[in-house]
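The records we work with from here on pair a chain with its fold. These numbers are not coordinates but entries in a learned vocabulary of local backbone shapes. To see the layout at work, look at the sequence and tokens printed below.

. . .
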Amino acid sequence: MIPNKKSIRRPIQSTLLLLICIFTLLSGCSKAQPESQGSTPLVETPPPTVSNTNNTTEQPNSQSGSTVSDDTEGIPAGVTIKKIIKDEVIKNGYRKKVELLSDGGKRMTITDSNHGIVMRHLEYDGVILAVKGNEVTVQVERGGQQTLTIPNDIVIDDEDKLGLNKGVEIEWEVDTDGQILSVELDD
């Protein structure tokens, strides 16, 4: 017995409709959430100017606005926060804040709706200047030189098979204790 075309199309159409609905719901969640809480929509303010980089007080409305704080958790000694690159609500009251550091790195912090830190790490981009085993000297983009010792247990993401060589672009993430979390090579 040959199944008719309608009986074959229905499951496919149902599956496609379900996928479209799920995608629509997921893509609209972050924008619809603040309005559905019954509060006024969040208003993003531009990052503070250089003259405001030592501001340590919270603004009256803690849901909007960005201040550069004196919070130095996970930042190497002698490094300061130059400015806030991004501070936005991402979903369900969670916030993502990206700060530019004086050594050329970026500190990324994600907080929950109660302002508790969910994740925090540092990201760096640069070009390899010299390699000696697992020790790599890098010219950091927007910063000075750094020497990294890549632990043996870190798997280097190297899709283009460039290897740790002079002139190769390198990106790495560091946790708040200074331990390297990941390394990626790019051309």
Notes: Residues 8-40 form one domain. The chain has three domains: 8-40, 50-122, 124-186.
